[in-house]
């Protein structure tokens, strides 16, 4: 029973997050296109770098939001199951975090 | 019963990791002291920077190892419990990951 | 005289780099769009995260390439001039590097 | 003549920075030792991670300060000289920045 309620919450939470993630991704895409325009128009290096940093930060936010979702849904579900699946999911998410940090 | 076995495994795994983490921390401490010596002796900037990067990478490795332990023990245990505790643990670990990424 | 030759080299080098930078930016844009598609199609979190990391790394490469250009052209030119301009350019580039590192 | 004045300024600036850098390094060393103690005493993972992040940030600050010094002294001097030396110094500092960013 508790499990069903949990899953419903999970589903709703996920859809909400998805819209937010897509909005951020569209903004990041716009920023990357903005950087292209700045490079084509020979804008000042430092201003372009500021824009590149903004796009990178936007993508980092997306990554952290996706990771949150993944931890609270997939990893939690796998942890509840336990065994080999849980171990694999944990190794997988650890590798993903390591890629984000480096 | 499964829980007891899980906890035993957890305990053992934790101690193993702890020695590795402490070894890495001692190495990082040695590297930081090495950087101090290089600065005092006016060594070449770029060589000092290389050493600082090595110490930073060592600390990142420690952080990732601690995070692994935390995910597979505390977070997994909290996720199995569910409810408010699980939610709080997940928010806490997400904030810690965000601090590592930025 | 030496200055004229330097500037010619600089100019050529810059155009070359620009094409490379634009190519990388278009690839990064494509990767960000790919991430959007993956999110819309509910692809597996970890696979999306891998793609986000690829886009972030591509933007980092762009930032480093732009910084290279900036150091070898603008900063070098300002350094040759010296005085207040040189000091300001150095502070500006240091701030840009700090934004990239954090 | 201008060169002599430049070098005097450089020298003074460098010594000032050195004390600051050493102070930060000693603090970073203390933080790393603090992390070791926390690990030995089985402190809570998240609290240890916070301390590791603090030490990493301290080292990043040191790296940025050293890079600033290097850019305003060595790279500027090499840029004024021009030629092969300038090219090599710029490549060297670019590589060091890339190591910091990744």
TrEMBL record, chains A, B, C, D:
Subcellular localization, as worded in the UniProt entry: Cytoplasm
A single GO cellular-component term on record: protein-DNA complex
Molecular-function GO terms, alphabetical: DNA-binding transcription repressor activity; metal ion binding; transcription cis-regulatory region binding
Alphabetical keyword list: Copper, Cytoplasm, DNA-binding, Metal-binding, Repressor, Transcription, Transcription regulation
Family annotation (InterPro entries): Metal_Tscrpt_repr, Metal_Tscrpt_repr_sf
Family under the similarity heading: Belongs to the CsoR family.
Protein name per its UniProtKB record: Metal-sensitive transcriptional regulator
Organism of derivation: Leucobacter viscericola
